[in-house]
Amino acid sequence: MSSEAEFENEIDAIAARFVAASAESMLRAEALCDALPPASPPLWRSKALWARGQARSHAGRHEEGIADLQAALAACPPEQRRWRIELLRGLSIAHGQLGALDTALQWAIEALDGAGQLDDPVLLAECLMSVGVAFSRCGDAEAGLARYREVLALFEARGDVRRSVPVLNNMGINLKNLGRLDESLACFDRAVAQARAAGDDGVVALIDSNRGETLWRLGRHGEARAALAGAVDAIHDSGYVGGETNARVTLGRVLFDMGRSDEARDELVRAVALAESSGGRNYAAQAHRTLAELHKAAGRFEAALAHHEAFHAAERAQFNEDSDRKLRALQVQHALAEARHAAEVNRLELVELAGAHRELQQLNAQLLEADREKSRLLERLAEQSRTDALTGLANRRHLDERLAAEFERARRHGHPLALAMCDIDHFKRINDRFGHAIGDEVLRRLAGLLRERCRATDLTARYGGEEFCIVFIEADATLAAAACDALRVDIAAHDWRSIHPELAVTLSIGVSDLAGALDHERLLAEADTHLYRAKHQGKNRVCWGDPAAAVRAS
Fold first, then answer.
1. Residue 332 phi, psi dihedral angles, 5° rounding
2. Any residues with CB less than 8 A from the CB of 458 and at least 6 apart, and which?
3. Residues 125, 161: contact at Cβ < 8 Å?
4. What is the three-class DSSP state of 518?
5. For residue 111, how many C-alpha atoms fall within 13 Å in the half-sphere facing its CB?
6. 59, 338, 407, 411: which has the fewest Cβ within 10 Å?
7. Distance (Å, whole) CA 303 – CA 268
8. pTM of the entire structure?
9. Which one, of 226, 221, 187, lies nearest residue 209 by Cα?
């Protein structure tokens, strides 16, 4: 590279094709890094590493991308404050794509703090956007949406259509996740129209991938299929692995709902392969779950069970990894804040100037407020890691921890322990017929009934999707099965018409106990197997250890 102008032009060319042609941008970025002479300015090396890191991340090579971005940050000259902020934003995005949600939020907040020290409202808005993305990926869709609205208002006031498009896309995603589907579709439609007017076909494809899921949830399957099929082709050509995986998973679900099982299976198998190659556990879990439903509907029960188990394995691995990383990072951050505070206090005690006292007071106030904020965030995330947001019951993480502890206690003292796994019958049909908002209300109402009808000493938890677990303390399978059958009868008799006049809900339940279980995970697996048998035998029944032991209403 012979001149600074040529170098900057090449960086701009690579950045312009991150989404439209990720594979091409990665090749160009790698060539640029290889061509840099050893005596190149540090800023050149930092920007070249940034370009390669972004390109690798878009191509699904997230860990390599993060390594490049961290090297770019280390090479960034201290006086390049704006460029440092850009690198922090890049690290936030890359960690979010990898699933390191707590780290993504920390990088985004650090970028926002840096932007607040510069007089640049556009840069500040872009950093606020990154914080919104990080909050959204952490599961706080409302907090993310609030920040997106602030950013959109600023960009629209400036007439900046190009920057408004990704904001509208992210708003559409959050509104979809909150169940506000008509608002979601309106945001996606505005984003598509603006991206098309700008001639940005690569961005249009990514928006259509998200828009397709909203159309599907609204029951507009034909439109959803058309949007997703076009998006899959365009994103595949670009080499953006994460975007292609997401689009193929959603397209597979739409095709399955439309009765096009062979096409759905092909899309979902491709999605699993892409997810496993790039480490996208969340996409893999969604694809395995739909494949399980597809094989079950076709009577291929062995294949259905294999995908069902793969779904739970992927979901549990991602959830535990995210939760553990989130809590560890916040605890470290809290300890660092205290150490910095103590070090600063010691330094100022040695300064015998009157102004040092005022500085110390201001610093103490700032650090105390920062400490309180981090403590609030730590408490909030710790609570989120134990509680299911939709139902208010214990979540998978809390269930795993409590079940492991109760299993060991029961083994040590020779006490009985039983586990019930409950599944709402025909829940997919409820979503398809009445809509996902009704489906969510069914989950909330059922959670309340489980909480009311179980003993205070028992643990009720949402296992995932429409599945719930009950840990019966000091009870064997026979007692637990009797309690579950009474619960099943109560659920079937409940006035579900208060939610919708044509709604009826029943449960299938599998029960296991300590007999033959080597550990708590085997206890879960046995309950799941009995639940599968209850489903296979006709639903609305309780099954446990003895194959002849099944109870249902006459």
1. -65, -45
2. 470, 471, 472, 473
3. no
4. coil
5. 30
6. 338
7. 14
8. 0.53
9. 226
